Amino acid sequence: MEKFVRRGTEITAPVPMTPSKTTGLGGFDVPSSRGSPLRSDASALNVGVLHLVPTLEVFPLLADPKTYEPNTIDLSDQGEREYWLKVLSEHLPDLVDTAVASEGGTEDAKRRGDAFSRAFSAHLARLMEEPAAYGKLGLANLLELREECLREFQFVDAYSSIKQRENEASLAVLPDLLEELDSMNEEARLLTLIEGVLAANIFDWGSRACVDLYRKGTIIEIYRMSRNKMQRPWRVDDFDAFKERMLGSGGGKQPHRHKRALLFVDNSGADVILGMLPLAREFLRRGTEVVLVANSLPALNDVTAMELPDIVAGAAKHCDILRRAAEMGGLLVDAMVNPGDGSKKDSTSAPLMVVENGCGSPCIDLRQVSSELAAAAKDADLVILEGMGRALHTNFNAQFKCESLKLAMVKNQRLADKLIKGNIYDCVCRYEPPSLSEM
């Protein structure tokens, strides 16, 4: 991870880049769809529409959809509402600068950026006076409103260049990480994988604290500090229960192989490539089908479902496990094995797939997901929610019909106080068996 940081220290401001039009980051050809076509009319979709899929469904693995409440923080409390509205207002200038720079800093981009700023500020001011102006108010709704407002002013993907550069830096150091992981025994590897997911979650352009770290050039120091916080016990630490379920125990419990795992991914760059992909690889090598669940539309630096095939192609260049799984899942049409890849000795018959979640927000309301995600969930027996937006701001208290694992680094002191009675950069590893009503 430190190698990634050293390669990426120049990423302090967005620099417009021309995206590749031919191959993925790994040099492999990538099919236009992600296996089974998710939509046939994606090219005709309009900017400003939050949900790509017109048919949104309730996530079928929710234990009780009638009592499910996605938002963890109650914004009907005036103090909470004022705090979070202020956070969004203070983050607005940085967001405008990033959005304008993402389109080359043109006069038109500056004009639209100023218009977006005024429009979103007006929304925040109205919500301060009338909390119910747009219906029930939750943090997920606020973040969703911001993304919709960006798209209304034609800023489709403000962090595109940042995401591309961080992806390239992460893929460059991935082989070293995989080699290190493969040298470990199963128990040490599982702990290292979970530590890696938690530590990599610090690279989040949606967190004001993390943006400040980038600008001050101290992200490497903070990463090292966060890595030191990997010393267990974490603030919420159910790793031992998860390990016992996965690997069994000396008390007679047998290792368990899940049939299908849904991995809800968060940020681009180190978060997904050095955190979640190696974890997905571990499930694949155990014969578990893996579905990577990502946003349908961009939100901050969150990875999207359309971007994941390129990322997987780049990772597959260094890993035969990922290559075979991606081919089975329809993510690669042509790939070559790296002759020096030491992972050839492992075999897997499980596919790696990508599904869009039906939304374009840093959070997710599981009462409204894409029909593709709902279909993929029907055969799943493990849900992993990663990142503050999907595992803490929303769904921290969600109960599921199957096993669940919630992984995140807390990057806001107030959230740490309210949710886990801890501090900023504390970690959450929350494992829960199926809801009692389903057992």
Order of helices and strands: HEHHHHHHHEHEHEHHEEHEHEHE
Based on secondary structure, the structural category is alpha/beta
Largest sheet: 7 strands, mixed
Strand order of the largest sheet: 2-9-8-7-3-4-5
**Residue share in β-strands:** 5-15%
- The gross shape turns out to be globular
- Work out the helicity level: 40-55%
Number of strands: 9
Output the radius of gyration.
21 Å
Terminal CA distance: 40 Å
Instruction: Report the mean per-residue pLDDT as an integer.
Output: 83
**How many DSSP H or I helices?**
15
Low-confidence stretches: 10-54, 335-346
InterPro entries: ARMT-1-like_metal-bd_sf, ARMT1-like_metal-bd, At2g17340_3_helix_bundle, Type_II_PanK
Keywords: Hydrolase, Manganese, Metal-binding, Nickel
Pfam families: ARMT1-like_dom (PF01937)
Protein name: Pantothenate kinase 2-like
Break the fold down into its secondary structure elements and pairings.
Elements: H1 2-8, E1 56-57, H2 78-102, H3 107-129, H4 139-152, H5 160-182, H6 186-200, H7 208-216, H8 219-228, E2 236-237, H9 239-247, E3 260-264, H10 270-285, E4 289-294, H11 308-316, H12 320-328, E5 352-356, E6 369-370, H13 371-377, E7 382-386, H14 388-393, E8 403-409, H15 413-420, E9 427-432
Parallel strand pairs: 2-9, 3-4, 3-7, 4-5, 7-8
Antiparallel strand pairs: 1-6, 8-9
